[in-house]
Amino acid sequence: MDSDDQTVHTVPPIGVHISNDETELSVALIGCGWYALRTHCVTLSKAKTTIAAVCARTEASRQKALAKLGTSAKEFADVAFAINAASCALVALPAAVAGRACLTSIQHGKDLISEKPAAWSPQEAEDLREAWNDRPRDDQRWRVLENWALKPGVLKVGELLDAGHGSEKYEWRCKRRRAAKGDWRREDKAAELLDVLVHLVRALRCWFGDCTVTSASLRSYEFDKVREVECSLKHENAGGFVVLELFDGDGGEESVFKCGDITWDAHKVNGEKVDGDGWVAGGARSTLMEALKSCEGDARADPCTSWEEGMRDCAVCFAALGMGDIHPGSFYEMPVVIGTVPRSPEGCVLSLKAHPSLIVVGGGANLRQRTGEFLETRLMARVLKVEGNIVQVEAGCTLRRLRQ
Q1: If we measure between CA atoms, which residue out of 237, 240, 269, 289 comes closest to residue 155?
Q2: What are phi and psi of 142, to 5 degrees?
Q3: Is pLDDT at 260 greater than 60 in this prediction?
Q4: Which are the contacts of 233, defined by CB distance < 8 A and separation ≥ 6?
Q5: Looking at residue 403, what DSSP letter applies?
Q6: For residue 251, how far is the Cα from the chain centroid?
Q7: Mean pLDDT, residues 190-197
Q8: What is the pLDDT of residue 221?
Q9: What pTM was computed for the model?
Q10: Which of 200-214, 277-291, 324-338 has the lowest mean pLDDT?
Q11: What contacts 203, CB < 8 A, 6 or more positions away?
């Protein structure tokens, strides 16, 4: 993303200043580029979140952010000092320096909200995992903002699939413009493709469950003006292929997903316009709100922003782009469930017999009703608790309430 944001400096260790009586979430906005101004500042302002600090290289950028936020806050040009001024860091920096800021947040004992992808390379993923394993506080929270988890078009397609539409095969053809000239991603073919592919992978995981890459190929042509990845993906009960092309010059962007009788073309699902379905902003406000609720300790916050889900997206993308492998199991807790029968390492089967009017909170589009007395989940890490007719679930993909 374009920004004038600063370099992450190396500084001496800074103490973690969180007093025992501090209960209110306070946020340091790290990065005041166009995306943060367009989405995060507006959301934070409407949510009336306490803003403790804003951080950008120039005073002009910091003032723009404060004006959008409608508040006053401490201003910093240095990332580490800004992070230390709040209980939670919202990192909206350019990709080249975002990883360093995320590491700083974790190592300083702060809650962290970062952008997708959760990591830009297998090595960065490993560095973040190691930092998280050694985090100063066991109750720290890390959330990754993948706006497509709650993008209106993704939710609409999920509703149709839940209603029995679609098929076991799909295809997705997507054309997007390349990163702006001078952007570091243009020098890295895999990273440039990753920035877009991660959206598509999250949508497919929401709809069909986890997947593996069965084949993939990367191509560059016309003197490297066009970059393309084509990959085949296999889910438990579905499969298909994705063709993603990034181009320079003339031509229009397009994205067409087809699955049986379902077609999602631009901002229309089966010919009907879906409001608020922008590529960049669609679902952005909702995902940030859920991440903030999670950092406030709200157990019912949608788990679609869990960092484990972000790493699972990355695992698929890294494999498809030939960047190397990370093993999602090392980032994702296997099922620890209450009142359930383990079915596979990727989920469990929950009996509906005791709760015929069950409401499931969390877990997402991966939830599917089976015939009889069972509801199968594919991505769920754990059922937290069962109270009356409500089962609270963690680590799914999108918030959905299913009444049986």
Answers
A1: 269
A2: -130, 125
A3: yes
A4: 204, 211, 212, 213, 214, 239, 240, 241, 242, 316, 320
A5: B
A6: 29
A7: 94
A8: 81
A9: 0.80
A10: 324-338
A11: 148, 151, 154, 157, 257
